[in-house]
Amino acid sequence: MNMRDNEQISDSLLYGHRKFDGQRRAERWLHVAYNAYCRLAPFRKMRAECKSYAYGKQYERQIVYNGRHITKEQYLKEKGIPALQTNILGKIKRVVQGQFRMNDTAPVCNAVDPGEKEYADIMSALLRQNMKLNRRSELDARTFEEYLISGLPIYKISWAYRRGKLDVFTDYVNPNFVFFPDSLDFNLADIRFCGLLHDLDFSEVLALFSHSDSDDIKLKEIYNHCLDNEYIASQFSRDTRTSQIESTDFYYPSEFGKCRVIELWTKERRKAWFCNDPLESEPYFVPYDQKERIKEINRSRLELNIKRNPDGSPMLDTDGTPVTFMDPDKYAAENLITYERRIETYWYYRYLSPDGFVLEEGQSPYWNGSESFHPFVFKPYPYIDGEFHPFISEIIPSQEYFNYYMVALDFYIRNAAKGVLMIDEQSLSDNMSIEDIAEQYVKSNGVILYTSKRSGNAPDTKTASSIPGGFDYIIQLSRSMVEDVSGVQAALQGKSGSSESGVLYQAKAAQASSSILDLINTFNSFLTEVAYKVVKVMQCFYTGPKAVNVAGESIPYNMDTMYDIDIDISISEDSDSPVYRALTNQLLMVQAEKGLIPFKAALEAGNFPNSSKIIAVLERYEKQLQEQQAAQQMMS
Asked: Do 179 and 41 form a contact (C-beta atoms < 8 A)?
């Protein structure tokens, strides 16, 4: 093996691009992404089924009947049976969503170094501003609903220009358009690639990937072919099941006329120098071709240990050796950078067309110290051995049992004997036929003639109970099964017994909420990871001096000096919640009544309605009072 082959092995970009032709096509990566997307087909099928059950379409599951694949609803219609359902599952979902909404929590930044607490407060304020910019309150609630249905909430954190702002934006990602390889890690932390399918207008494609007139022409040529769906299917589709245009097909856009763009992020490798710098808190990588820069830094640090004459020349001993402040070996151990050759991993992005053209590529712009990262945040729950088991999927069997009993009950009611008229043949009158009797019997004011001359009995109606004994118990049992399986008990739904005390109800509600505690806390950990990545993107791109409002005070900061602060993020009670605002307002008013702080200061520090108008009135009054005092002093 020659040196060139070794270079290609240690650098995955050289190794992977070796077979690309002059047109910069990337069929290999395209097929890798396609295979990963196909492997997630069972997940997408499960998500579609969970979504149908959650929103009341509970008879769409396919069954085989007489050699035909039909839905359960079609089967029941063919049998003349109404497809009855009571969507208990949807109610359970709304109750859990309500519990999430009731948690007034928000991510808070904490500095690992206690001396950097002020910087952590600034980052917390910046994070709150960014959450308002992205309307995160509603976005998180809708993503929590996705989390219940599919078990896979996904956000994409990106630095972009939107709505007249260049800032960090958080976007919800539909799991139908995502692909990644199988993973054994429950957080997908070990994946080597991931990606997302986009459907864009051609104008959006130009805005994102065109940087010259020649790019415009090339992109038009590429997407002239991509609009020809049959061409794409014949050239690259390996699965006949994807040969039809579907909303979540890998090669075809969901809407005809759109341009399918495949965003792919891969973890690459390269040679680099792994450096341990005594003057830095963490080790870091330096590009392999910058070894001389490391040596130059070490040389400059060695110069600092040499004593100098007044003219700046080195002070020498009798042997002509420079005199140093510290022992050279000890100084080197405490100040010089040590380095060794290692393999560094980093993330690399590519935007591909469906026929394999690379529209844009480059190294990830997102870095955490010396480690790069991709912009996605995944939180599959629960994810065991590559399998998804979302909250809704666990309740579907109980919902089906309940629907089955409802259909069975309706069948019994419709087919039970409701009122059979029994007539003794000896009592039949010659003046009314049996047909006339049947016609009169169903009328509200009908009259039936009979005779008792032949010792016949009077007509009698026989009825039978339309509901079998114990059927109401079965219905109630199936309903309680749904609650038991979901963990959403009656107390959590707001139900209480007629003779139940308030203390007992609160205890039951607290106990019931513990059954979904893991569900909600896992989603909170997802929001924590999102906040952490948002902060890291801020540290990558926020530059220069700015000001942020912290506790009602405008605090100046310079992000250029804060990019390397080690931040820890936790989810805690939101200080901007109504409860916290009320407590703060109450505390301030008590202090103002005691004369510990001015009333105006309490208004400025608190969050009172129309406080700005009151403050303006107070300022006018203070100004008038000062003018009157000044006038009185002049007169005296």
From this structure: no
Grouping H, G, I as helix, E, B as strand and the rest as coil, residue 372 is strand
The residue ranking higher by pLDDT, 165 or 156, is: 156
Q: What whole-number distance in Å separates Cα of residue 43 and Cα of residue 149? A: 11
Exposed e or buried b for every residue in 388-408, given b needs 16+ CB within 10 A?
Answer: bebbbbebbebbbbbbebbbb
Radius of gyration over every alpha carbon of the chain, rounded to an integer in angstroms: 37
Rounded Cα–Cα distance for residues 345 and 271 (Å): 9
pLDDT of residue 571: 63
Burial (CB count within 10 angstroms: exposed 0-12, middle 13-18, buried 19+), residue 344: buried
Average confidence score pLDDT of the chain:
80
Closest of 600, 575, 605 to residue 587, by C-alpha: 605
Hey, where are the domains in the chain? 3-81+134-259+360-383, 278-336, 392-506, 578-635
Backbone angles phi, psi at 283, to 5 degrees: -70, 165
Report how far residue 541's alpha carbon sits from residue 534's, in angstroms, rounded to the nearest whole number: 11
Alpha helices (H) in 272-350, listed in sequence order: 291-304, 328-335
DSSP strands (E only) in 37-83: 62-65, 68-71
Cβ-based burial of 251 (10 A; exposed 0-12, middle 13-18, buried ≥19): buried
Greater model confidence, 369 or 351: 351
CB distance 451 to 393 below 8 Å: no
Provide the 10 A C-beta neighbour count for residue 444: 4
Indicate left, alpha or beta for 272 from its phi (over 0: left) and psi (-120 to 50: alpha): beta
Backbone torsions φ then ψ of 383, nearest 5 degrees: -120, 105
Nearest to 180 by CA among 20, 363, 376, 315: 376
Separation in Å, CA 392 to CA 46, 52, 149, 485, 486: 10, 10, 5, 10, 8
Greatest mean pLDDT range, 74-83, 374-383, 452-461, 503-512 = 374-383
3-state helix, strand, coil in the chain (%, to 5): 50, 20, 30
SS (H, E, C) 236-280: HCCCHHHCCCCCCCCCCCCCCCCEEEEEEEEEEEEEEEEEECCCC
Specify the pLDDT at position 274.
94
- Rounded Cα distance, 636 and 624, in Å: 18
